[in-house]
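Here's what a typical entry looks like (protein-serine/threonine phosphatase):
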Amino acid sequence: MGQLGWNIVRDLNFFLVIIFMIEQLPGNELLHDTFRKVMIAIMVAVLMWRLFGGLFFESSPAGGPRVGGPLRQKKTEGGKSESLEWAVCEMQGWRAAMEDATCVVESLPEPLADQALFAVFDGHGGSQVSHIASKEFPKVLQVCANKLQDGDSTEAEKEEPNTELLPGELSPCTPGSSSSSKPKAEDGKEDDKSTNGVEADIALKAAGGLCGKALSMSMIAMDAFLRQLGNSVNSKRNGLPLSSPLGMMARHLEANSQRNAFNLIGSTAIVALVDTGSRGVKRRGLKRSVTVANCGDSRAVLCRNGKAIELSEDHKPELASEEQRIRLAGGSVKLIGPCHRIDGWGLNLSRALGDFHYKARGDLSAEEQKVIAVPEIRTVQLHDDDEFLVLACDGCFELHTSQNVVDIVSVALRAGFDVKQAAEQLVDQSCSPNLVKTRGKGGDNCSAIIIKFR
């Protein structure tokens, strides 16, 4: 009902704008002076909300916050194997549309036969990129893993990522380099810190092992696939509609660049390959491991003996290394409302799939653009006291720290709830009951995957 009321006000405002324009013609006096002043006030209020409401309430570019309260209906799925039990839960919440997507493949084929794939894609500007990625990423990963296994990666690493990918097809991938935006200490070395006093025991590998190399290559190839697909969609449909206030402000910036359906539509990606321990790992007496690829501000958190260990770092524009790259690419980083944004009006994250408006510098490589799809790869060996892994979009961390998220899941599991119920409790508690009281936080889509180790 609230949404209907907003639509009526929006359409009425459009009608009044037309009348106001007609009045500017000589000899036309259609409105009473008092009514004219009220009309102008309404027009200004609507315009201000359309332009700046999203900045202060983290509104969805696809339509802003829902009017009338959050949509708490959840989509929950789960499964189990000999060594893992998992659940995925998605909830639209306060957003006017659901832009998240998830992906689970319990058993991958060779050469990743000992791995299970879990991924959360948090879309922005629309749901197209996140949903395409959730469907296509396993296929891209398989092609890239096969390419690496065949021993062709040595020459491929010298080449640029293949951008000649046709929609519906997968051509050979070339690996991109993986880098970390981890803060550095004053002496230039990486700050080796622990979380809550617990050593993370994380091996940061630029492209270490088949899993890390395959994930790094796949993220770059997925982005190239989306670029080619976006060009194809745009040529057939003249682009996708952009209803975002930010999108409208940015339209003129695209006038001199090649149009792409995903110029202002993108998605983060947090992807994990988890050893199932079903074959070679147990046979050789090796420890199981988790390899995480992060591109954006979604997050992976490991629970080790009740303590949260972050296996990813949020890629935000204000991070020193990210801001440096953005500025070198001709952009800027400004604090607008509650967060820092690229070029003042743009994204509040610095790595993503899609978002080709920010990747339009032809004189720069894919790793040097304002926004890049190069993932950060982290691998950690699992310990006996590792309980579960959480992959979640940033909506689950607006009201909670990583430790809060671990505590919510731990309390649920120890109370006898199953993994599905624990996932539902997490997304429920991540959704604000009142956006005014929480100052806009907790108003995002909420999607989470919990992987419990058995």
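Residues 235 and 260 are 8 Å apart (CA to CA).

More examples are in the samples folder.
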